[in-house]
Amino acid sequence: MTSRRELLSGALLVGLCAATGPILAQPAGWPSKTIRLIVPFPAGGPSDAHARYVAAGVAEVLGATVIVENVGGAAGTIGMMQVARAVPDGYTIGLGHVGTQAVNPHVQKNIPYDPFKAFVPVAQLAEYHSVLLINPNLPYKTLADLLAAAKAKPETITYGSAGLGSTNHLATEQLARAAGVKFVHVPYKGYAPARTDLLAGNIDFMFDVWSSSAADFIKSGTLRALATTAPTPDKSPDNIPLISETFPGFKATGWTGIFAPAGTPPQIVARLSDAIARTLRKPDARSTFESSGYEVAYASGEELAETMRKDDAELGALIRALDVDSN
């Protein structure tokens, strides 16, 4: 006959098992198979290079195999959709950035994921700033010169962007609104063709990510830098004037980060975040990212989530005001 004490003990054990269910449900021995890191852009660009660096570092820390899978299309939406729909077991993660997580949801109709519900932010990798570049054949020597000309002759000065809703499109419109001027927008399919037309003199200026190639253009006199979106002087390349010195509070900084599908066990997310932090502390991390215009800026998943919330609110309001629709 079962005693009262045995019944109470069994009930207590059942209660403990229920309370600790999510912990016990964590896959034993993770990682025990290959981890996929999805990059929602084609191979060869900065995102791809950064993902491969992080994949190698995480693989070393975890003693696992991490492969990079490029799934481009729809400004990163297709690749991030695959991440969102993956089994949340820690074997599929993705590289997202301010565009995929805070811009696309506001400019693409019927986007197949909610960036706040479909993903768990794992860690921020880096930040990037832009520099306002003009064709040197133009007479403008400072940002004040450019804005004065735009006020004198509205909608005559042209600027290029990587496309409707791209980060440099939004940065330029933020500047225009702050200065009370109007430019003529010429959207391209990416930074490269816009830069080509800037060099050829077919457009007047553009915001470009600071990189070694941008520095070379400036040094050779092929392009002229008027200002940067860097937040503080110590982050300004070559002492280029800050836009925030003219317009206090101006912010147009981008970021990249790693995301996992919603429901990924928190213990796995924590281990991934720790492995990423260790990777970004390696001696060659800084030079690897800086070569393409990015700055290593590790932040926890919680901090990245807060950055996403702020950018979603600010950029969403700007996009609605501009009535941007990339479809």
Note down, in words, how this protein is organized.
With 327 residues, this protein is an alpha/beta fold. It has 2 domains: 33-127 and 254-322, Bordetella uptake gene, domain 1 (D-Maltodextrin-Binding Protein, domain 2, 3-Layer(aba) Sandwich), CATH 3.40.190; 130-246, Periplasmic binding protein-like II (D-Maltodextrin-Binding Protein, domain 2, 3-Layer(aba) Sandwich), CATH 3.40.190. The chain is 44% helix and 20% strand. The chain contains 13 helices and 11 strands. It has helices spanning 4-19, 21-24, 46-62, 77-85, 98-107, 143-152, 167-179, 191-200, 212-220, 243-246, 266-280, 285-290, 301-322; strands at 35-39, 66-70, 92-97, 119-128, 130-134, 158-161, 184-187, 205-209, 224-228, 254-261, 294-300. Helix 3 (46-62) links the parallel strand 1 (35-39) and strand 2. It is globular.
